[in-house]
Amino acid sequence: MLKFPSDKIRKTAQRVRNNAKLIPNIDYKSVMKYALETSRSAQMTIDAGELNLTNYHSLDTKQLKVLIYGNVNLNLLDGSAVWATSVARMLSVGENIQTDLLLKTHVHNDRLLKPLYELDNVQIIDPFAEKHREQLGTARWYKRKDISPGYAPTVIQHCFNEKDYDFCIVRGYPVIKALLKHPHLMKKMWVYLTDFPHSMEEFSVQEFEDLQSVLLHCNRFLCQTEEMREFLIELFPFAKDKVYVLNPMIPMNEELKPTFKISNQPSLVYAGKFADLWMSQELLELFPTIRQRLPKITFNIAGDKFNDSKVNENFKEDVTQLLEITPGVKWIGGVSREESQKLILESDIGISYRSHELDDSLELSTKVLEYAILGKPVIFNKSDMHTRLFGDDYPLYANSDEEVVANILLAVENPEIYEMAAKRMFEVAKRFTFESMYVQLSDKLWNEKKIPLFYMTPREVREQIRFYKSRLAVLSQEYLFLINRLGNDESKIEMDEAIMNAAHKVDNSESYEDLDMYMKDVIFLSEEVSRLTKALREKHMTDGTGGLHE
Questions:
Q1: pTM (2 d.p.)
Q2: Are 99 and 91 in contact (CB under 8 A)?
Q3: Which residue ranges does the record assign to the Glycosyl transferase family domain (predicted)?
Q4: pLDDT tens digits, one per residue of 64-87
């Protein structure tokens, strides 16, 4: 690796420091440190000590501050409540990320929050606490201990006033629609949504316009799967760069070791909410049929949230009765995630059978992953997304009651099929742990610490453009020098044209777009200089002409 003489390091560091003064709120010491480190490593060569231009706007970062808010009740055990705490746990993987979870309702059962109490960089914000009474205590929602969607922007703004967050991750369409009436807040929102139509044919005009408005005005849009992202980009191409994937996330407990073996007294397990599309009542009514074939099998169930039914006004009462009186069913009600894991570990086969209406869904069930990470095979619907993740040859897909019964028998009576399915599920689930998800999102999260261009005054924009133009001129000369040394006439012609095009750009532009264009030009040319310098060094090493400097 090339080394620069000490005067080169000093000059580079000084130049970077001077140029950094053009940007507000910059941390000069970090600039100097970065410049010295990059100079010594000489990764960019020639002028390699130059601070990587893409990082100019991020050197003021010491800590990323993130607020999380969901239109969810953390007293109840369901996917949306687990999601909120999972995002907080995922962000806690980053040492320099401070995460605050804002509660929607007063929490009287903190089973889902307990794991967060142990995390130094996660804080729970209770808007009903005494310290918030003066500013929030007169509202009706405050008195009933439940923030309504229409008042959520007020509470979120209050939190931003208390602590200047970099952004807020928010879930819940009613809240997001309320936030659209507050553009200054909406541009700070990382929106997470799953409850929208998953095919173009299902969209009403209003639904399409609502989703388009969200994508236009939010900072970032988080969706659950790659399939969902592709679908959104196909509908709204303008949003391509702001739609990210935030998969369901699960903890990886090293102490809970899966065996991939079925027990002598097999049991099924379900943990989650009870709802029409989740086939809750149908599965309980089907269980006696399963028991006729497997008399010793039991069904372990955890959960205490009942969604309203569109077809049965007595849904909660009917399902509760089935949970309580069906032979072989062991219902333990709502429990913490850790207790749910223990129940899954003690069981044999996970159940995630859904209505055929969800066969084309672009969502991935968190519960499927929770069963899988503990080494349990799962009975679940065959869909395009599931086959992409778990393979077309996974043996326990079920899209009908008959297939549910048949595949439970198949897994119980064939240990080799059980083990194959369990290991397949486990290997896939390892890609969805908190740590894995943080690695996937880390760069995108920290990009929010870049100082947005719209914070810069027109004068600052012009100064930055002049700086980049001067850098472009220097780099162009270095590029031509290297091309001449390498004897590459074709590249020289291409670069001559590029330099000519750059020279025609407006000198006194106040356009952020022009500034962005210059930045990209300089970064591109810096990379080209680095590439050509490496090529020249390799050429000298092979032909014996010596080093770069003769």
A1: 0.64
A2: yes
A3: 261-423
A4: 999 999 999 998 877 788 899 999
